[in-house]
Known about the structure:
The chain is mostly beta strands and 120 residues long. The chain contains no helices and eleven strands. It has strands at 2-7, 10-12, 18-26, 28-39, 46-51, 57-59, 67-72, 77-82, 91-101, 107-110, 114-118. Strands 2, 4, 5, 6, 9, 10 and 11 form a seven-stranded mixed beta sheet that branches.
Amino acid sequence: QVQLVESGGGLVQPGGSLRLSCAASGSFFGINAMAWYRQAPGKERELVAAITRGLRTNYADSAKGRFSISRDNAKNTMYLQMNSLKPEDTAVYYCNAEVVTTTLDGMHYWGKGTLVTVFS
């Protein structure tokens, strides 16, 4: 029905950059809000950044000034540009989307995650 697939994770040195992508596919009318979450080893899942269909955004304090969230509605794809990466950014990053499907409205879906490791 609906599938979210993250990509772009990997190993990067402190101070480096990565660009994550989340592509939505399947049968649906549209996507409302989308967001990036992350979960570090031994930590709870936390919101990193969110974006509405109208391109309004909000960020966690730890991401402000370093990360930038965006989306391409025509491609049903969301991005997270991460700059000045720190070791504490190491986590599995998950895509979340509020999707309007052919049978249910406003259902949240999750991707399987992509691992970001910031280490020298």
